[in-house]
Design brief:
Rossmann fold, 315 residues, 10 helices, elongated, 2 domains, alpha/beta
């Protein structure tokens, strides 16, 4: 059994990948460029992948390929329709990152609401040392208790954030496809207009792509913050940058981008110096514990497949 790991650096170079060796011969690549994937897969029986696009042009000559293991919950990099036609099984890794993505989401919210960047810099860059006052209370910040926290997408991560927000004393409202008896479910417009904090946790689909644009941002409260830890393409990045520059919204946090890594042409480069902007390099999912759970789930998916069982199967 030939197993190919196309981009193990996305799992972190500190992770032990030797568990895959029990299934056959394993070839590991730290990174695979899109135009390298076809050649690297030509003799593979199983591929483990995160970012490389598994499309027809890459897969058509991989005649032995039986299983694609996605090291993520989302699988928009895989052409599932082509895999169905070819009889290639596809398995993802759900629920492994719930705790750490919820943790980073709430950390972003706490930092932005409390203006920690400004207060930290006041001390770190000498302002406090030269101050005549024992404290500084500007910019003004407010308690999160009593704020309304709107959650877009209410799967495992959204629910995790909701529980923490509730513990903080926030009123939690939710936008999701099906009702939830434990939380107030509302339409998107109401959520945008009513929330002090908004966090996005929905998958990227044809319906969610670009769902937050200029008009939606205008609906938000002027001092509201919005956090995206879902997918970069669920909002219009240029519109978000413009909303920060124009003061349409109070602040934003983001861990995901429409293309990664970003470059000097990305709309967010113009707002990197803003105190009310908190950008992180797609790390919210990646605690050591989360990455370990992810790879162990991949190994379990492979074992189930080889034993004729379906586990976390998309196709």
């Amino acid at each position: 059994m030939n197993i190919v790991i196309l981009d193990y650096k996305t799992l972190g170079e500190d992770l032990d990948l030797t568990g895959a060796d029990k299934f056959g011969t394993v070839t590991k690549y730290p990174v695979t460029k899109q135009d390298e994937a076809k050649e690297r897969l030509k003799d593979a029986d199983i591929v483990i992948v995160n970012k490389v696009k598994m499309v027809e042009s890459v897969l058509k000559d991989a005649k032995n390929l039986k299983l694609i293991c996605e090291t993520a919950t989302g699988y928009d990099n895989i052409d599932t329709e082509y895999c169905k036609k070819r009889g290639i099984a596809v398995a993802n890794t759900p629920a492994y990152s719930t705790a750490c993505v919820a943790q980073v989401t709430v950390s972003m919210a706490c930092s932005l609401v409390t203006h920690l960047n400004e207060y930290r810099n006041f001390v770190h860059y000498g302002g406090y040392q030269n101050s005549i006052s024992a404290n500084m209370l500007e910019p003004v910040y407010h308690e999160m208790a009593g704020m309304t926290w709107g959650i877009i997408g209410f799967g495992n991560i959204g629910k995790g954030v909701g529980k923490i927000a509730d513990a903080f004393g926030c009123k939690v409202i939710v936008n999701k496809r099906t009702p939830d008896p434990d939380f107030e479910c509302v339409d998107l417009d109401y959520l945008l207009k009513s929330s002090d904090i908004i966090s996005i946790h929905c998958p990227l689909t044809d319906k969610t792509r670009g769902m937050i644009g200029k008009e939606q941002l205008k609906m938000m409260k002027k001092d509201a913050i919005i956090i995206n830890v879902a997918r970069g393409a669920v909002w219009d990045e240029q519109a978000v940058a413009d909303a920060i520059i124009d003061g349409t919204i109070g602040g934003m946090g983001c861990d995901v981008f429409s293309y990664e890594p970003i470059d000097e042409k990305h709309p967010f480069v113009k707002i990197l110096d803003r105190y009310n902007v908190l950008l992180t390099p797609h790390m919210a999912w990646g605690s050591f514990e989360s990455r370990t759970r992810c790879f162990n789930t991949v190994l379990s998916n492979i074992e189930a497949f080889l034993n004729g069982k379906e586990q976390n199967r998309i196709v």
